[in-house]
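Hi R.,

Here's the chain you asked about this morning:
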Amino acid sequence: MKACVATCFESNEERVGFVADTLRRKGYDVLIITSDFSHMKKIARNNVPASYFAIHTLAYKKNLSLARIFSHMRFAKDAFEKIEAEDPDLIWLMAPANSLIREADRFRQKNKKAKLIIDIIDMWPESLPVRFSKDYFPLNLWRKVRKDHISCADTLVCECDLYRKILEKEYHGKITTIHWVKDREAIIKKADLKDDALSLVYIGSINNIIDAERIAKVIAQIEMPVVLHVIGEGENTENFLRLTKQVCEVIYHGPIRDEETKSEIFSKCHAGINIYKEGLYIGLTVKCIDYFSHDLPIINNIKGDTWDLVKAYDAGINLESDGTLDAERLIELRKDPERIEKLYRDHFTKEVFSKKCEEVIDEVMR
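And the predicted structure, written out as tokens:
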């Protein structure tokens, strides 16, 4: 049995790896198809894993541009040329780019044998900030491409329940939520906290959907000294650091890939920050899973899966639009990590992912 797993974004490759591992355990020969272009850094990649098949991808400079649309369209066409040549029994496709879904539909018109699982990792254009009108080109095109072609899948997977609610209006087959996961074994360190300040951490892309102003405002209202550790990079880094340095001590670590180094920083923090601009359609962020995997409570303002999990497990503080932060509560939660560890074990381990992944594969291959 042969399977192809395809994505155009390197940020999906950890999830790709978990899917491929599950397929291999089930006896599949797996080919992973990815891009040789970093969509985050807008440069050619030099870190494509040797075992992956990298599609040469047209470069572009702006996220909202015709060049980006053409780049995704070309990637999708080339990816399915490779998939057709491989003649797989199963295809696990990660979207966006939504043009991959259109090419998948074209492929299915010619090839009815291969089973197709489409894994929705993000919602375009719904996940974009509200300042963009999602009813105008090219944003409405992205939505239309997904909506018009999604029915080609034998089944859908999505990363959060919030996405499932949208997709149920477009797709009438079975949809399974499989959250992102994090392998924390052998990396988590025991908390090493100081009592003279509240230590917070932000990890991830520092982009324009992060509400830097709100983060600075929340920190400014805390009635004790605050130290903010920042791990990551992005187009909004300078503004983010400028605003937060006005209200607290900031330690900027830059992007960190090494899990041990990251764990060392997390061990010195009371909570992780998960604050985005209002109006985004985001249910669960990878940074939250990173925080939970290190027993960190979170400061959260996004609705959907994250809000519900924080509430169900008492795993942090959900901020209403006009809410303030109870710093003492965060300190208490950090000292008693059992509920957050249970949250992690219930939802975000490789075992949980693999079990759900196997169920989806078995059902679609019957």
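The two ends are 14 Å apart (CA to CA).

Let me know if you need anything else.
M.
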